[in-house]
Design goal:
By secondary structure, this protein is of the alpha/beta class. The protein contains 21 helices and 18 strands. 46% of the residues lie in helices and 14% in strands. The structure holds phosphoenolpyruvate and magnesium ion (MG).
Length: 577
């Protein structure tokens, strides 16, 4: 069993790593699962024959219950899952168990509950002592059957008072098959256990139920108070406790993506986004993983407008090296053939902490050592990423983009390093494609200096998520002020207009990859402002293409002109409505 607690710079929580048992992402309150209290009085009994009869009646009831559970499970989840309960029925006839119970009753003269509990503990102990995964799983079955029998003998309901009242991520020492079935599915978002292996029944049932699950995560999971917000990443085997807002929103985006993919697998928009008067724009995807890139491809993305490479680094002890990054980038590029893929270099630090990277706490994280500022001070991290990106570019349409650029000097320094890496690779005889270079425009100084910056790059991508928080001086992660950072505020829209104009004056391409790009209400405004590319959450792509195809350039121009004249974001929204 692997039990690790990753080093974490995030004071608000920690990341526990276990065994990935069933894929998917669950976000919600934790719920510490405690089994119904099965304590009983150990009594001496006169008539051990009557006690044996009582035990045998309990066995008959358990057999009937299990037969029903097996039938229902076969119907709901298939034969593999049902086999767990069929095996438990056979266990009720297991001579090893029955002989031990009878011996305890007759030799010690105790009641049936005590005899069963003693016999079962010995049996479980024996099975667990053998280093054999199959026998260990059998031990879990013996415990499960024992609990069922005790519930019957004590006449209590196994799930009384132990179910969550709101949808929750269930945390437990271990879960038995019948626990999982009795946990009301609608209130279970995911499962995470201290014990267990990838082949345990928890894993099998979780997969059958489509629930994310992580097992074998260690006893630390039992210290997390119920109600604490957690993110369970079943595919990566991670439990993130009380995540910071950035991690939470990244995972929400991923979870939304999965849900969207499940809800509308057929929604695809392979055709180009062309206005009614024949003006074509690009509709690309924001992705963080290969899985999201696949989804983007399926829904008809024209390319990837933002590859958030920091996703590759999340939940890691150590940062991935050049080789691993090369393979990750290459896999995504291959998916997109010759369509453009914009790789954004590491956007961490400040309010985007990264396990595996020791960074001093920041007094004002949003204004701190983050993104390109951090990369430029840490060439041992930056260089391998640039080399991996350049190597992956061969034969594909890769573009490199730097985040949080604030000054002309930064882009020059970053480009110089990129060129050094290119020269190195060429000297090593490695093929490297011509790679376009761009920047995120997400800091007011960059927007205001766009004419100068445009001379240094091939393209801009406007990051309205950050740009609006800096323009409006409103922390996008602070619930009380975040609504102020509305990207449809005319103050932000005026900057977007100026950035597009400055880039176009130099013949440069402008994309926008903040959330605004996928907002159907904002699309006419952005189209009217002359945007060349909209990059968004993949699930938003089909609708965005439909909105664009329904408009003419002239209609969009009118909306944009009017929006720029409004006095507030609310007024812009009212206008669009
Ligand atoms: C943005 O700031 O608009 C953006 C797309 O970057 P991120 O949300 O990753 O900071
Ligand atoms: Mg940003």
């Amino acid at each position: 069993m692997t039990v690790n607690i990753l080093p974490n710079n995030n004071p608000s929580g920690q990341t526990l790593r276990g065994i990935a048992a069933s894929g998917g992402i669950a976000i919600g309150p934790a719920f510490q699962f405690r089994r119904a209290d099965l304590r009983f009085d150990r009594r001496q009994v006169e008539d051990s024959g009557a006690e044996w009869m009582r035990f045998q009646n309990a066995v008959e009831t358990a057999r009937a219950q299990l037969a029903e559970v097996a039938l229902q499970t076969e119907h709901d989840l298939g034969t593999d899952a049902a086999a767990i309960f069929q095996a438990q029925m056979l266990m009720l006839e297991d001579p090893e168990l029955l002989t031990r119970v009878r011996a305890a009753l007759e030799e010690q003269g105790v009641n049936a509950e005590a005899a069963l509990s003693d016999a079962s503990s010995l049996y479980v102990h024996m099975l667990e002592a053998v280093h054999n995964e199959y026998l260990r799983a059998r031990a879990a079955d013996v415990r499960d059957v024992t609990s069922r029998l005790l519930c019957i003998l004590l006449d209590i309901s196994p799930c009384r008072d132990v179910l969550p009242s709101v949808p929750s991520v269930i945390l437990a020492h271990d879960l038995m098959p019948s626990d999982i079935l009795s946990l009301n599915r609608s209130r279970v978002l995911g499962l995470c256990t201290a014990e267990g292996g990838a082949t345990s029944h928890v894993a099998l049932l979780a997969r059958a139920l489509g629930l994310p699950a992580v097992v074998g995560i260690g006893p630390g999971v039992l210290q997390i108070p119920s109600g604490t917000t957690v993110v369970l990443d079943g595919g990566a085997g991670l439990l993130i406790v009380d995540p910071d807002p950035q991690t939470l929103s990244l995972y929400r985006a991923r979870a939304g993506l999965r849900a969207g993919a499940e809800r509308r697998p057929a929604a695809s928009a392979d055709g180009p986004a062309v206005t009614r008067d024949g003006h074509r724009v690009v509709v690309a995807a924001n992705v963080g993983t290969l899985e999201e890139a696949r989804l983007a491809r399926e829904v008809g993305a024209d390319g990837i407008g933002l590859l958030r490479t920091e996703f590759l680094y999340l939940g890691r002890h150590a940062l991935p090296g050049e080789e691993e990054q090369y393979h990750s980038y290459r896999a995504i590029l291959e998916l997109f053939g010759d369509r453009p893929v914009v790789l954004r270099t590491l956007d961490v630090g400040g309010d985007k902490p990264l396990p595996g990277l020791e960074l001093p706490p920041e007094r004002n994280p949003a204004l701190g050592l983050r993104a390109i500022r951090l990369s430029l001070t840490r060439p041992e991290i930056f260089r391998p990423q640039l080399r991996a990106a350049l190597r992956a570019s061969a034969g594909h349409n890769l573009k490199v983009m730097f985040p949080m650029v604030t000054t002309v000097a930064e882009i020059r320094a970053a480009r110089a390093l990129l060129e050094e890496c290119r020269a190195e690779l060429q000297a090593e005889g490695q093929p490297v494609a011509d790679v376009a270079v761009g920047i995120m425009v997400e800091v007011p100084s960059a927007a205001l200096m766009a004419d100068h910056l445009a001379a240094e790059v091939d393209f801009f991508s406007i990051g309205t998520n950050d740009l609006s928080q800096y323009v409006m001086a409103a922390d996008r992660t602070h619930a009380a002020v975040a609504p102020l950072a509305d990207a449809l505020h005319p103050a932000v829209l005026r900057l977007v207009r100026d950035v597009i104009a400055a880039a176009h004056a130099r013949g440069k391409w402008v994309s926008l990859c903040g959330e605004l790009a996928g907002d159907p209400a904002a699309i006419p405004v952005l189209l009217g402002l002359g945007l060349d590319e909209f990059s968004m959450n993949p699930t938003a792509i089909p609708q965005a293409k439909r909105v664009i195809c329904s408009l003419t350039r002239e209609e969009a121009d009118q909306v944009a002109r009017a929006a720029l004249q409004q006095e507030s974001a609310e007024a812009v929204r009212a206008l669009i409505r």
